Amino acid sequence: MTTKLFPLVATITNSTSSSHSSYLQNLFTKLPQWRERLLLVDPSSHVGAAYGHGLGLNTVLAWLLSFLAASVSSAGGVGGGSLFLPILNLVAGLSLKGATAYSSFMVTGGAASNVLYNLLCMGGGVGGGRPAAAALIDYDIALLFQPCLLLGVSIGVVCNVMFPEWLITALFALFLAFCTAKTCRAGLKIWSSESRDATARDSKEPLMLPPGTDGNGGAGDDAGFPWKDVAVLVMVWLCFFVLHVFIGDKHGKGMIRIKPCGVAYWSITLSQVPFAGAFTAYIIYAKRKKQVVHNQEDGKANPDNTKMDTLPTLVFPLAAFVTGALSGLFGIGGGLLLNPVLLQIGIPPQTAAATSSFMVLFCASMSMVQFILLGMKGIGEASVYAGICFVASVVGAVVIERAIRKSGRASLIVFLVTGIMALSTVIVTFFGALDVWAQYTRGAYMGFKLPC
């Protein structure tokens, strides 16, 4: 009797699996066709608007979705590029290349708004001592992260060119899922700590830093805004920007004519390594010298002065390099990866969000200016999106600040970041799988490539 049942079970299993496979095959076939139709000239898309069809429903819908995505991302200190790309590609009808350029404008606008809000609105007014934003933004960590972060992005971009699409999608899905789980666990721990003893939170593990707190800012004294730290960050930005302008793109299109992947190309590319090392060494030396002076003036060591006292200094550049490399490899902004890294290091949630937005501003603005110099089209439309994200970021920052003040729980930021990461994991993995399937059905090459 059992032997007669096996063929029946096998038949049912085969029919079920074949129906599922045919359904999936039909899904993977229809969705790319729908995406391709969106990219055609459509009166309701940006592509159609460029041909004189005017403003359409898709454009307005893309603006609304971008506003929501920017407000949520800003509240969590995340750039939001992983949310902007699907909106621009699927709703606005932009190509993936055009959506990437637009996204750099949007992330820059949102990050600039977030930083300005922290600096201007969160400070207790002029003359009220050290602004609260200076306590929220950890300039020590920003200085230690920035050079190696930009270096890692350059290395990651080279790996992005070499690695096949399916491998990048798989690595991104696994890494982001892992970070989502770790960040969620960190949020649960913080939530439990807040629930156990809300009054002891500020004294033992401050999650909401009041105005005048010196615990995490780059200037550990009452010197006000740390202009020197910001000047060093701008100098780092300019140095890497000049190098990228000289390099140009893979076709040799830059400010000067350089043969792609020639001797001059690789010489300039590799020069980023000593630049990053020199800046990092100088920053570590300057901070340690400043710390020694403060300890001598106080007569004793102050372990709560900066985060550099509680963790090995090399942890920050190493974490920055890995974060930048993964950001360049996956083709996303650093905010989605920076915030979880800062939380895992032990940075308080509000400080992690503010510092992450501060560093994202430097990374995204560099990408934006590079797109402009390389002849990007649609700068006006991209600027409209940037303006929308600028306003939305203020709204998101105000809402999350009021929610934290009312509830007394800074862990809300951690859970918000967790939600954004989980949503990004699903979106990027799904559409990455569609692209891989399209390559497979076309018979395209799916192996490793040379960097040139």
UniProtKB/TrEMBL annotation:
Pfam families: TauE. The keyword Transmembrane helix applies. It is a multi-pass membrane protein. Its main location: membrane. GO terms for cellular component: Cul4A-RING E3 ubiquitin ligase complex; membrane. Keywords: Membrane, Transmembrane, Transmembrane helix. The chain crosses the membrane at residues 60-87, 99-119, 139-159, 230-247, 263-285, 314-338, 358-376, 382-400, 412-434. One of its GO terms (biological process) is protein ubiquitination. It is found in: Membrane. The keyword Membrane applies. Belongs to the 4-toluene sulfonate uptake permease (TSUP) (TC 2.A.102) family. This is Sulfite exporter TauE/SafE family protein.
